[in-house]
Specification:
Blueprint: H1 3-19, H2 32-35, H3 55-83, H4 89-110, H5 115-143, H6 147-181, H7 188-226
Helix pairs in contact: 3-4, 3-6, 4-5, 4-6, 5-6, 5-7
Length: about 230
């Protein structure tokens, strides 16, 4: 193997380690100043290659997040087509999607951030995800009342709204990764986003309770009519 052929493999291996927040030389965890601002590794003092760190690393994180968004949308659409006729089955699929968003998008990206920004990012993203998924649950469960027409619509709607939730989380987290890469401090607007997300989640939770009550009431009415 020539040096020209080996170099891309070396960079790919180093990029994979950096995406996990680790030094390309010794595989120890790196602080944000090494990941994004090219400070040497605190453990081995190895240099951090600018070809795979800094803004290049932020771009790689974004590309990984986009792949997860597409996969999550496809999985939720399939789950709704198979299980969407069952009450609450769609909600379980959405909970699984929420776990995927957290493990596949939120946690790996936020692990690269400084402790304070990491905490802010994770809480805000979780709240945004909760609001989006709550609204999806409301729409899909109400469509359970239309079993023939509702099933394909639930698949499309569920996939679209989960994709929107995944996109919103990914966009927010990637924005924070870029701010970290640019060494920008946390400002008041970022805290305001957190406050708005808390208020939105409270309202969305109340709406979910009302939606489930409506579905339960409708099923009770159908059972009484059949009897």
């Amino acid at each position: 193997m020539t040096m020209a052929q080996a170099e891309p493999d070396h960079l790919a291996h180093g990029r994979a380690l950096l995406l996990d927040g680790r030094c390309p030389s010794c595989a120890e965890l790196l602080p944000p100043r090494s990941l994004f601002r090219l400070a040497p590794c605190p453990r081995c003092e190895g240099a951090i290659d600018s070809q795979i760190a800094g803004l290049k690393l932020a771009e790689a994180v974004e590309a990984r997040g986009r792949r997860h968004v597409l996969a999550i949308a496809a999985a939720v659409a399939g789950a709704h087509l198979i299980l969407g006729w069952m009450p609450l089955a769609g909600a379980l699929a959405l909970l699984a999607a929420a776990a995927w968003i957290r493990v596949g998008i939120l946690q790996p990206a936020s692990d690269l951030l400084s402790p304070k920004r990491r905490t802010l990012t994770r809480w805000t993203a979780r709240l945004v995800m909760g609001v989006a998924l709550a609204l999806t649950v409301i729409a899909t469960e109400l469509l359970t009342l239309l079993p023939v027409v509702g099933l394909p619509i639930k698949a499309v709607l569920g996939a679209g709204e989960v994709a929107l939730a995944a996109w919103a989380v990914a966009t927010y987290v990637h924005w924070q990764v870029r701010r970290e890469a640019e060494d920008r401090p946390i400002d008041a607007g970022e805290w305001m986003i957190l406050v708005v997300a808390v208020a939105a989640l409270v309202l969305a939770t109340l709406a979910v309770v009302l939606a489930f009550a409506a579905v339960a009431s409708a099923f009770d009415y159908v059972l009484e009519w059949l009897s």
